[in-house]
Automatic annotation (TrEMBL):
Location of this chain's protein in the cell: Membrane
Coiled coil: none
Protein name: DUF423 domain-containing protein
Membrane-crossing segments per the record: 6-28, 40-61, 67-86, 98-119
Recorded family membership: Belongs to the UPF0382 family.
UniProt cross-references to Pfam families, sorted A to Z: DUF423
Superkingdom to which the source organism belongs: Bacteria
Taxonomic path: Bacteria, Pseudomonadati, Bacteroidota, Flavobacteriia, Flavobacteriales
InterPro entries attached to this UniProt entry: DUF423 (IPR006696)
GO cellular component: plasma membrane
Species: Bizionia myxarmorum
Amino acid sequence: MTQDIIIATAALFGMLSVIFGAFGAHALKKTLSAEQLQSFEVGVKYQMYHAIVLLVLGFNYTNLSPAIYWCFTIGILLFSFSIYGLVLSDSRGKKLRFLGPITPIGGLLLVIGWLLLLINAF
C-alpha cells in the first residue's frame, strides 16, 4: 500500500463522514426515530475515527503492514455502511436484515486492525 493511497482513502472516508453526519443531523432528523438517529451517528463517528487513524498512518508511513490498511478500510465499509443501510432501510419499513450480521464482522476487522497496529509497533 502506498502512502498516497492511504491518505486518499482517509480523505474520502473523512469527507463522506462529514457529508453523512450533516445528512443525518439535518435531512434525516425529521424522518428517523431517536434510536435510529443514534445508530446512524455511531456509524458516522466510527467512520471518522478510523479515517483519522488512516490519515495519521498515511502521514507517518513507515513499514506499515498492508493488512492494517485493509482491516481498517474493509472494517469501515462493513461496519459503518451496514449501519447506514440498516437504519435507512428500517426508516422506510423495509429493513435489510441481511446487513445485521455484517456490522459485527466490520467491527471485528476494526479491532483486528488495531491489534495489528499494536503488533506492528513492536
